Fold:
Amino acid sequence: MSDAANSAPVLQVDGLVKHFAVTRGLIRRKTIGLVRAVEDVSFEIARGETLALVGESGCGKSTTGRLILRLMDPTAGSVRFKGKEIADLDKDALRRMRRHMQIIFQDPYASLNPRMTVGEILAEPLRVHEIGDDASRAARGRELLEIVGLLPEHARRYPHQFSGGQRQRIGIARALAANPDLIVCDEPVSALDVSIQAQIVNLLQNLQQRFGLSYLFIAHDLAVVKHISDRVAVMYLGKLVEIADKKTLYDRPLHPYTQALLAAIPKPDPALRTKRVMLQGDVPSPFRPPTGCRFHTRCPHAQARCSAEEPLLREAAPGHRVACHFFETIPAPTILARAGLANGKFAARLAAFEAAKTARAPG
Amino acid sequence: MDTLLEVRGLKTHFATDRGLFRAVDGISFSVPRGRTIGLVGESGCGKSVTSLSVMGLVPSPPGKVEAEAVLFGNRDVLRLTADERRKLRGGKMSMIFQEPMTSLNPVHTVGQQIIEAILAHTAMTPRAARARAIEMLELVRIPSAAQRIDDFPHNMSGGMRQRVMIAMALSCEPALLIADEPTTALDVTIQAQILDLLSDLQRRLGMAILIITHDLGVIAEVADQVLVMYAGRIVESADVNDLFADPQHPYTIGLLGSIPRIDVDRKRLATIEGTVPSPNNQPAGCRFAPRCPFADQRCRLDPPPLRDISPGHQVACWKAPVEVAS
Ligand SMILES: Nc1ncnc2c1ncn2[C@@H]1O[C@H](COP(=O)(O)OP(=O)(O)OP(=O)(O)O)[C@@H](O)[C@H]1O
Ligand SMILES: Nc1ncnc2c1ncn2[C@@H]1O[C@H](COP(=O)(O)OP(=O)(O)OP(=O)(O)O)[C@@H](O)[C@H]1O
Ligand code: SF4
Ligand SMILES: [Mg+2]
Ligand SMILES: [Mg+2]
Structure:
């Protein structure tokens, strides 16, 4: 969305910090440490734009998403939605604002009320925000089910009667119910199989074009991210280490961690089943993050300065920021082995499949 | 090859108020010792129900599991007593569940849960079991494992909970591991480490793995043999190299076409139109016919049998392989 970048951002996140106290003991809980889940994270999202947030498990992606919706209080920092600081909103104003800001949760199992039918689940956000009457809410629910590829009669069923992927689609339908401006998508497709994943990704893109939606798309699948995002932010251990538009990030990743992430993507081709270029070393503890650059314990390019001094997020090119002391001199990686699937008979068969599909499509 | 698990004619259905849901409808496969079998297919096609049936964990009622046989070693697991099954589960036969949050108990620490699993299936002392639990958490790359062991599940990230499940399933060195979407919540670097850990354990212990996933990248990486499932049935079965180089069933072709790729720029992903039919309302002929671009009258009327196309490669499609037909 190139022209979107010019208009005022929908979301501005500035210096966001979240520490969790870790406590022990049943009677007298005492704090034994802090999990530094999010540490000084800043970014913006424009109207109609998709910013992807990627990074290792436990690096603070979901926490960032929750802080944006103020499902928990930040330790420090500011979140502005359409120019308004959400920390300043009272309970009522926050509730009204939430209509415009929705979340699709990572765990579809835990996020759907098992005692409500799907129809009730979909009507709930509308009821909370006092939109429509019972009949129009039910109609909207049926429409939403169709939008996400389920059947209108599914409205009478309960969540446990659906498979994992079907439940995720219910979560997406619920997020869409009140026509929001921004949706935080927390791993919305990682529980889905590829064909439905493809349908949902295409669906999210269609909805974005139709309604000018903005997405914060949290994911760990860099292939999906490449497909859906406009820009990508990479997190490591609570910090942003690189942010750039999609093309730049995939073609010219500058941070060694981004380079390692791209190299670790499994290639859908058993002929390429060689040893992956794997990131060495263990994920450091967020209790005691490494000094200096948090990545230095695993970085193949680390030098003495890296453990002593924390790198700033510096501009490498307009819109491309990198937190590494040495990004100017690190050799370009030879990743992205062009994967197969081109060989064998697959390509010809897929072409036949697509051709037959087009021939059948009405109109 | 030395077969560890053999499933013959498995049928699992659920009695609901809207009729009988035939979630798994007559499937057969076997898992040899020391090998990895991949089970792929769209959401709702019956993958989890298949694994729960083998584990004896289908809730009954409403579920009912029938089969000619489900042989583990030389014992038919469907004919074991509840007690014998419990003994088997988590010990020789272990499962990583798809839903880490619902299968971890929220009121116990993750350590208590892993230790309990170890104590139930080994002769270890509680102290040794705790050390073992920490070791397992380290193996699945939980940082500060000795501290995090006392965390409750809700204090952990989604991917960490998934790794706790993996640690628990591996803690008793099972002969068969059923892994239902074991890496969906993990990023690629940890996923790569976990997959390596599984193949390492496989080499060391001769563990057999049935891995269920929708990620064909993972399948390409770890599976020896692949079963493609659609609407409760197996529609294609092949050696992994064959499946990717020479996919025969239109459904398999569509699945491979919908993989998002980082090396190919596409505006829209190829998709298979429509959705999996509801298990109480299956099409009469080929179950894929309503979504298949190649379907004709015969496809809609007669169910195609699973037949050998070449040695070790079976397909259930009247038109396979498709380029000849179209
Ligand atoms: N309520 C909580 N109490 C204590 N620690 C927490 C809490 N929620 C999250 N954390 C910790 O904060 C860190 C970041 O967690 P978060 O869920 O944001 O990770 P994530 O990047 O979303 O990971 P994943 O990809 O695995 O979902 C983790 O170390 C996690 O254990
Ligand atoms: N307890 C139940 N009662 C009724 N129907 C059920 C029950 N459990 C599963 N089903 C149905 O059985 C079918 C197969 O479900 P299953 O969970 O095996 O799918 P899956 O292939 O694992 O999908 P996913 O990839 O989404 O996890 C689904 O249509 C589901 O709705
Ligand atoms: S049998 Fe017919 S309908 Fe079924 S997959 Fe093959 S071509 Fe399609
Ligand atoms: Mg998360
Ligand atoms: Mg499942």
